[in-house]
Amino acid sequence: MPAPPVVDIRGLATVFGKGEAAFTVHEDLQLTVRRGEILSLVGGSGTGKTVLLRHILGLTRPTRGSVAVLGRPAAELGGDGASSRVGMLFQQGALYSAFNVLDNIAFALRELGTLPPALVQDAAMVKLRLVGLKPEHATRMPADLSGGMVKRVALARALIMDPPLLLLDEPTAGLDPNSADEFCDLLRELHAALGLTVIMVTHDLDTLFALSTRVAVLADRHVITSGTPQEVARFDHPFIHHYFAGERGRRAMAQPPGAAAPLKEA
Ligand SMILES: Nc1ncnc2c1ncn2[C@@H]1O[C@H](COP(=O)(O)OP(=O)(O)OP(=O)(O)O)[C@@H](O)[C@H]1O
After folding, report:
1. pTM as predicted
2. pLDDT band at 264, cuts 50/70/90?
3. Is 125 left (phi over 0), alpha (psi -120 to 50) or beta?
């Protein structure tokens, strides 16, 4: 029995502008992401990966079609409800520069206003440790953190409400190779420990091979194929030839698959 869908996208179209200026980004796009998957979304620049993440977050609505998250329309997630169901790690980390580490992690929970401040602090401290940071990092300001630490704080912040679905936009962008490997290890551990479903946009082949249980390729306005990285690499399309070509592609393909195993059904 396949695991239940966490994200179910059907017949999706996204058109920006009107009349002569209308510009179609997605057309008849289908994508189902099941519980426990780490799905990598790849595609050329401007193919609509970020727009798709925004639809899943409920921040924008498609022109046509449906986006369901955990069985409900994604649009219902928009606003305050979103962070308890979907965690989002933005590309630049996007920390509040005026808040220290712990206040950044605690932000969504504090805004919710349902817990006393001491409990919010405790919950944020649990998440700080979860991402491999130490209590003494709690009072540091974002400007005093390394790139790898910024990503960890941003990840802790995305996880503060224990969302079952995590969206990652270029999680290893801007990290040196060692920090990128460490961050991939952390994501793999948390995926297994917390039973997360993950959707990730990445241009980085090493990250793709290290983490993905499945890859979906966005081209020609829809998902042209999906499968394991090895299966997708055999699909005949100019973008895929270009993406997996070259020394880095061959090196990544030669690696034993380090991908996390999909979660078994409970
Ligand atoms: N609010 C908007 N209004 C008009 N056009 C938009 C809007 N948001 C995105 N677009 C356009 O939609 C297309 C897809 O953008 P998107 O940012 O999703 O691409 P992407 O696949 O994430 O690209 P990249 O890999 O370069 O980040 C682009 O041409 C972009 O200019």
Report:
1. 0.89
2. very low
3. alpha
